[in-house]
Structures are given as C-alpha cells and as structure tokens.
Amino acid sequence: MNSQNKIKSSRLIVNYNGLKWLKMPSGYYFVMVKNFGGEKNLHRYVWVKNFGKIPQGFFVHHKDKNKDNNKIDNLELLSANEHAQKHSYRHDKKRYLKQIEHLNKIRPKKVYKWSQEPNPEKRAMHATAHKLGMSLAIPVERICKNCGTKFLAKPFGKHVFCSNKCKSAFRRKSKSDVVLRVCVICNKKFYINKFTVTTTCCRSHANVLRAKTIKEQKNGVG
C-alpha cells in the first residue's frame, strides 16, 4: 500500500486513496461522495483496491472485529455461512448480548424489518441473531383451538393449532374460506372456497362454459 493510501484517522472521518470516509452509527465507514461508482464501505473498498471485485455472496470481515482497523492485513474474505458463524453467539457473546439489549430498547417503538436491509453484511448479521433468538426461545404450553390438545410452541407468534391438520379442519368447520359467487351461466348464487377459480354453480354449467369458450376461440382464430 502506498503512503498516499495509508488510512489516517481524524475523529469520525478518515482519508483513504484521496477520498473521505465518514464513520456511520453502525461503525462502518461510508464514502463521502455522491453517486460514487465503487464500493461505498471503506473495508470493502480497501479489499477491492488490493484484490479486485468481491464475488457475489461473499463478505469482507474484520479479523480483530475492530471496524476502525481497515488495513488490508486485518481483512479477510468469507462466505455468507462463514461470516455468519464469525458473528454467532459462540464466537462473539459480548456483541450478541449488546445486540439483544439494543433490540429490546427499540422493539416497543418500531419493529425493524431486517430482511429488507439493503446492506448484505448487516442483513446476514440480523438473520443470524434472529435464528439464534428463535433457537434459544423456551417453548410454552398452548391449547389447540380445534381439538383442545395441549402442545408446546414458541412464545412468540400466533400458535393456536397443534398441527396443520387441525388448522385445516377448523377452517372447514368455521367456513372462514367460503365466499359467495354468482354463476356466469345462470346467474345463480352459490358458495365456494375462495381459493378455487370456479365460476359456475355446477358441473353441467362448467361444461357449457368450457364449450362456449372453445367455440369463441375457434371463431377468433378463423
């Protein structure tokens, strides 16, 4: 790395390769140039500058977990799975607990949709924390709304059925999926499951509609 490319810190801004990089609340440094065509995160920019384009699905990781240390010898290229493991509870307990504390503070105000995070590194981190939280959750006892059987389920979410079989049976009994339609042949009203595409009240009228459609298609072709 040339002397002009050395990273020089100045509070929350660093200079690298003739560009200014601003430290964001996330800890990463973002380029202070509008419509910048290259990598906008400093650690990724440093990697590309030294080794070329980053393959899709790979992440640039700080070996010492210090986002201020963006020297090339502190960076490594990892796959999504490897990167997620680096930020897992087992490898970074302190970081994970800090994330949980932060989420507990903001959750009452706003549920953060991490799946829509544009930054793939942040998205992978949130996904890992989410999966870990799901795996560590202690199941609670619930009662099936259909059969009355007690079952264990995660403490979050609307778990009211012990199985999909009971869920389907309850929906059939409650007729929650039944809608009223009008037959396109005789204008008779009939009830049908809303997930079907049926537009006739009976099979004979369905045959009439089919024959009519075929005839119209032939006339159209002719």
Automatic annotation (TrEMBL):
Residue span(s) of domain HNH nuclease: 36-84
Taxonomy, superkingdom: Bacteria
GO molecular function: endonuclease activity
Keywords tagged on the record: Endonuclease, Hydrolase, Nuclease
Keyword Nuclease part of the UniProt annotation: yes
SUPFAM superfamilies: His-Me finger endonucleases (SSF54060)
Pfam families, sorted: HNH_3
Keyword Nuclease: yes
UniProt protein name: Endonuclease HNH
Species for this entry: Termititenax aidoneus
